[in-house]
Amino acid sequence: MPQSFHARSTTRRLRRLALTALVWLSFGAATTGNASELNVYSARHYDSDTALYDAFTAETGIRVNVLQGDSDQLIARIQREGSASPADVLLTVDVARLWRGEESGVLAPVQSELLETRIPANLRHPDGLWFGFSTRARLIYYKPGQVDPATIGTYESLADPAHRGKLCIRSSTNPYNQSLIAAMLAAHGPEATQAWAQGLVANLARSPQGGDTDQLKALAAGECDIAVANHYYYVRLAVSQDPAEREIARQIAVVLPNQDDRGTHINVGGAGLVKNAPNRANAIRFLEYLASDSAQALFAAGNYEFPAVPGIPLTPALQSLEGMRTDPLGASELGRNNAEAVRIADRAGWR
Ligand code: FE2
Questions:
Q1: How far is the CA of 61 from the centre of ligand 1 (A)?
Q2: pLDDT by residue (tens digit) across 53-98?
Q3: 18 shares its domain with 40
Q4: In angstroms, what is the C-alpha Rg of the chain?
Q5: Which residues surround ligand 1, an ion (CB under 5 A)?
Q6: Rounded distance, CA 72 to CA 101, Å?
Q7: Distance from the CA of 4 to the center of ligand 1, in angstroms?
Q8: How many angstroms from the chain centroid is the CA of residue 331?
Q9: CA of 117 to the centre of ligand 1 (A)
Q10: Does 302 map to a domain?
Q11: What global pTM score does this model have?
Q12: What is the domain range of residue 283?
């Protein structure tokens, strides 16, 4: 489950639960479709999303009802609700989860010239089952003085025997790592990727534990010399209101992997039309709205992600990453490789 800014605050979490319950109440009347409504099942938990929905309502007059939850739970719920589901749009945060939505049969294809023009082909499903609206990069971090950054310039180098016992990375049960392995599969095939995963496991400083932020904290604390985490976890620490968090970011340095070959591995956050959407036209309008300049800026800024549409200005916190070369691999291929990636991780003993 993705961490949100306010995940640490129990009070705010309770308040959010209360809000979710209230929002859910409004769904009762919405199952049959209403020209002025849209029901979004969202696995995103960012304060800025409210601004996104409000702007859509202001522009179109369509009221947005949001049900928040864990991605897999939302998909299971849509399946359970079947043809009575009020869900119009499924919004989620990782291609492995979009793939699950695709595989579970809850999504329907959308043909939209606007979306096909605005969203690069590698960031959307070839048949329009889902569209990526933001991207996130999986980066390598190190403790300056402990590691020569030239020796960790690629994902491949994470398996280098020179780094035995130095690496912190979270569990392979997390979709971020599954998608990274899926990208390695696309670049190198199954045998080389298996060997890589084994080399990576041999380099672990500790048994995988915690989320991406925990890997960065462990790096700053000296538990490891190399770590892997999505870029926004680092950016959150770097711009945190909490001086202790900024200090963690200050103690570590960033490597943009594979800049000299295929580019850094990226993943997408995105959305798709739900098959039984009662408000289908509103749902497509919402997806198209998400590709607009203003929505792109909001959608990406909520989690310090990169806008999927080219040419949208980056938030100041991201400008140091501007110009990063990214792997052009199709996001849908990451989904297709997911099952094989999980098997490779299991065989390698990557818990
Ligand atoms: Fe995340």
A1: 32
A2: 999 999 999 999 999 999 999 999 999 999 999 999 999 988 989 9
A3: yes
A4: 20
A5: 2
A6: 8
A7: 8
A8: 11
A9: 27
A10: yes
A11: 0.88
A12: 5-135+266-317
> Do residue 37 and residue 17 come from a single domain?
yes
Residues 296 and 339 in one domain: no
Q: Cα(238) to centroid of ligand 1, in Å? A: 16
Higher-pLDDT residue of 90 and 45 is 90
Among 23-27, 217-221, 285-289, the least confident range: 23-27
> 217 CA distance to ligand 1 centroid (A)?
15
Q: Are residues 190 and 105 in the same domain?
A: no
The answer to whether residue 28 sits within a structural domain is: yes
Q: Which two tokens stand for residue 211?
A: 């989320």
End-to-end CA distance of the chain: 17
CA of 93 to the centre of ligand 1 (A): 8
Residue 28 CA to ligand 1 center (angstroms) comes to: 31
Give Cβ neighbours of residue 185 (< 8 Å, ≥ 6 apart).
Answer: 193, 337, 340, 341, 344
Residues 219 and 344 placed together within one structural domain of the fold: yes
DSSP 8-state class, residue 273: E
Q: What distance in angstroms lies between residue 211's CA and the mean position of ligand 1's atoms? A: 8
User: Is residue 225 one of the residues assigned to a domain?
Assistant: yes
**Model confidence pLDDT, tens digit, residues 176-216:** 999 999 999 999 999 999 999 999 999 999 999 999 999 99
Tokens of 342: 């999980």
Q: What is the number of structural domains in the chain? A: 2
CA–centroid distance, 67 to ligand 1, in Å, is: 19
Q: Which comes out higher in pLDDT, residue 320 or 276? A: 276
Q: What is the CATH number of the domain that holds 48?
A: 3.40.190.10
